Amino acid sequence: MCGVVGIVSQSEVSPIIYDALTILQHRGQDAAGIATSTNNRFFIRKQLGLVRDVIRNQHVINLRGQMGIGHVRYPTAGSEDRELAQPMYVNSPFGISISHNGNLTNHKELKQTLKEKDLRHLNTDSDSEVLLNIFAHELQKQGSIKPTSKEIFAAVKGLHKRVRGAYSVVIMINGIGIVGFRDPFGIRPLILGSKESDLIGKDYMVASESTVLESLGFDVIDDIEAGSAVFINSEGEMEIESCIKNPIPTPCIFEYVYLARPDATIDNISVHKSRLRMGEYLAKKIIKENPDHDIDVVIPIPDSSTTSALQLASTLGIKYREGFVKNRYIGRTFIMPFQEKREKSVRQKLNAIDLEFKDKVVLLVDDSIVRGTTSRQIIEMARSSGAKKVYFASAAPPIRFQNVYGIDMAATTELVAHNRTEEEIESFIDADWLIYQNLEDLIQAAQQGNKDIKQFECSIFNGKYVTDDIDENYLKNLEDLRSDKSKSLRQSNLN
User: How far apart are CA 451 and CA 471, in angstroms?
Assistant: First the structure.
């Protein structure tokens, strides 16, 4: 889960990219960066940290150019090094920089091929650097001194033939323009917009979420379709082309559950409306399973569950109350790398309002349950505030499997639902009653927004990987990388 943006404008782009990255900050709090280009020169600033800490006023002034790309990153397996911050750069051909959201599932094989056959040097273990070099090699094969859209789309087509996994990408080619593209399944989002320039012509933006475009005065043109690419040259001319035969749109359903902002629209599906439907389906399940329930009040765990909780309460005809005050200066605990840090942050982030809990049967609503330790802490807070009973509802089904497409949520053994029944999870988090969303209902909640989307990437719930290249060895290696023990060991080595 990362955030990417690319802009071609008639004026300086660094202030706009800075604003875009702050809007995308929820997609990554670990590192940030901007790259711009003008007069055949690149200007890059990237570092570990939040956008406001990494990019200062002087950096914005120094990042000159009328086109540029930006990136925010959250901690992924093995990403604790500043050198892995993006955008990344390679000098041949032309000078190319990349911002990438996703994960390549065959990056080890590609890394070997790049070294032994393409004779390209890799400086890190990042799959984004692999992706950058694959594109660079495919573009160099076109043999053009100044590539046009034809050569650039041919390079994207060549990349699709070699690369597997999830990748929504913006690439800047020095003196040429910006290209944005999605993998053949369109797993991660990428959206195109434009606005009339303050000078002459149009400005174009490509970004991970529609909210960025709308907030900065751009009109949304459309989602870049699965397997398609957009090229915007340095003169501000735009072309779109499908770069693969028979793409299968399969957006990640967790974007609608948690990752995206509620005011975003992804693949023409409103995130807000999909979360309202999640709450409605969850309420119907509660009525079906326990029509004589004794729930007094519905309380969301802010923020991503608020929409679902509000609709759930409305459907049940029960009071909705906001019983937790959130400290807005604490980051999203889901994407924090270590258990100790996550638990400490939960205590710092949420504070219960006792009068909303005292002597009541409370239904807490969250977007999902990952490790279960955060849920258990929050239930303890509710009981300490005087709740008679604490029920817990998840707007998503049990998360039982690893995600291999860009969400570094946990090692499988750290997932509370892995090899546990719902009754055992209920006991683990110390809830009086646990209610999970049905997967079929979750899919319906999203699909109702766009009937043209026939399937979603749901591997964390059902273990089915759409790229069809994931075996036990791959999952075992990923398991070793993602455990908190491994992360602590790597951190110690860095220190």
Answer: 31
